[in-house]
TrEMBL record:
EC number annotated for this UniProt entry: 5.1.99.1
GO biological process assignments: L-methylmalonyl-CoA metabolic process
NCBIfam families listed in its UniProt record: metmalonyl_epim
Keyword vocabulary terms for this entry: Isomerase, Metal-binding
Lineage: Bacteria, Pseudomonadati, Bacteroidota, Cytophagia, Cytophagales
A Pfam family hit: Glyoxalase_4
Annotated ranges, domain VOC: 4-132
PANTHER family: METHYLMALONYL-COA EPIMERASE (PTHR43048), METHYLMALONYL-COA EPIMERASE, MITOCHONDRIAL (PTHR43048:SF3)
Domain of life: Bacteria
Family membership: Belongs to the methylmalonyl-CoA epimerase family.
Protein name: Methylmalonyl-CoA epimerase
Gene this protein is translated from: mce
GO molecular function list: metal ion binding; methylmalonyl-CoA epimerase activity
UniProt-listed InterPro entries: Glyas_Bleomycin-R_OHBP_Dase, MeMalonyl-CoA_epimerase, MMCE/EMCE_epimerase, VOC_core
Length: 153
């Protein structure tokens, strides 16, 4: 089940400038910065009520964000929904005919497992599913099976 609008992902060229701008716009400081090597992005997160803004800058030519910004202006890059069971939601969306960009959930930013839905199968919107890595049995079972690796502390 999709339970919440988890975050809006915004693609930016200059993370420092965008962070300063959003700090003024939202009237709050970011609560987290994180580099996600697997996605080749640097991120900055702001809390807005029960949701979040994720600023994303690419860190290599291969990054989806770098490629996106070669063709499109800065702005909303993806919409992310919280799910309670990411594998169940992936199976449901596949059965509904959506094209998933990951075979398996992968580790995202801010302690999440994530999966992307291709914008061509979602009315032009890149959709991200996010499940908080916590105590759920699904995640425990994945860890037990060696499918998900927590970063070393
Ligand atoms: C920090 C981790 C994580 C989190 O925890 O929150 C993140 O948010 S990471 C965010 C960055 N990572 C990703 O976006 C991964 C998923 N994305 C992809 O796999 C690719 O970007 C893509 C969506 C498959 C597109 O890649 P590609 O096919 O190589 O690019 P093209 O430029 O050829 O695009 C094809 C087609 O799709 C349109 N497009 C591309 N990106 C978007 C987008 N963000 N929103 C809407 N539409 C998009 C693009 O315009 C092309 O359309 P046409 O020109 O009409 O063919
Ligand atoms: Co995101």
């Amino acid at each position: 089940m999709l339970t919440n609008l988890e975050h809006l992902g915004l693609a930016v060229h200059d993370l420092s400038a965008a962070t300063a701008l959003y700090t003024k716009l939202l009237g709050v400081a970011p609560y987290k910065q994180e580099h996600v090597a697997s996605e080749a992005v640097d991120t900055v997160f702001f809390k807005v009520g029960g949701s979040k803004i994720e600023l994303l800058a690419g860190t290599s030519a291969d990054s989806a964000i770098t490629k996106y910004l070669l063709k499109k202006p800065e702005g909303i890059h993806h919409v992310a929904f919280e799910v309670d069971d990411i594998r169940a939601e992936m199976a449901r969306l596949r059965a509904e005919g959506f094209v998933l960009l990951n075979e398996e959930p992968k580790r995202g930013a801010d302690n999440k497992l994530v999966c992307f839905v291709h914008p061509k199968s979602a009315a032009g919107v890149l959709v991200e599913l996010c499940q908080t890595i916590g105590n759920s049995e699904v995640v425990r079972s994945e860890i037990a099976n060696g499918e998900v690796n927590y970063p070393s502390a």
